[in-house]
Amino acid sequence: MFxxxxxxxxxxxxxxxxxxxxxxxxxxxxxxxxxNGAGKxxxxxxxxxxxxxxxxxxxxxxxxxxxxxxxxxxxxxxGLFLSFQYPVEIPGLSAIAFLKAAVNAQRKSRGxxxxxxxxxxxxxxxxxxxxxxxxxxLKRPLNVGFSxxxxxxxxxxxxxxxxPKFAILDETDSGLDIDALKIVAASVxxxxxxxxxxxxxxxxxxxxxxxxxDRVHILAKGRIIASGGAELALELERDGYxxxxxxx
Length: 248
Known about the structure:
By secondary structure, the protein is an alpha/beta fold. It has helices at residues 40-48, 72-77, 95-109, 117-130, 148-162, 178-190, 205-208, 231-239, 242-247, and strands at residues 2-11, 14-24, 29-33, 53-62, 65-66, 80-83, 90-94, 141-142, 166-170, 197-202, 215-220, 223-228.
C-alpha cells in the first residue's frame, strides 16, 4: 500500500533524511519512534509536500501512485492524511466550515457530488460525540484558543470524517492528558480497516499501550535503523535510544 524507498530530504540545504526505506501494507498499523532531531517530522512534511522540504532522491508511493509527483492537495485527494504535531490556527474560518470544505473537496476529487448540508451536519455531530467534542467547539475559529488536547481531538475528528487511505499521525499524543489520550487512541483504533494503513509517530510507549502496532521502526540520524514487533517499543521505554543512536 504505502512504500518509501531510499528517500533523501534536505531542509535549508542540510540533509535530514538520509536514505530512508519503509513499507506499510494495507490493514496494518506501524509506529516510528526516535529521539529528538531524528527526522520524524521532516519525514511527515516531506511526504505531505510541505514547501522547504526538498526530496533530493528516492521514491514514495501510495497504492502505486507516485506521491512525490503530486501537489500537496493532490496527495490529499489520493488518500494521504497528515495529523500535525502542532496544528495551525486559522482565524476567521470555523472548524465546521473547514470540515465541510475538506469533505467536499475530497468528494469532488472522486467525481462525487457535494454532501448535502443536513447529512454532513449529522455525520459531524455523530463523530464529534464519540470524541467528546462539544458542538460549540465546531463553531469556533479553527484551532484558535483550543487547548493542546482539543486540537488533537479535532485532528482525530478530521481522520474519522475524511476516512483516508493512509494516515500519518505525527506525535498525536503530544499535549494530551490520560483521558484525552484514551479517547484519541480509541478514534485511531476505530480507523483501522483492511484497506487502510496507519503510521503513528511518537516518542513514547504510552501511546502504543492503546494503539497496538503491527511493527515498530526506530528512526535515528535520518534512517530506519531497526524494526521489530511491539516489544521493541517496550525495550526503548526500558533502555532508551542510546544504543541505536550510537549504531546510527
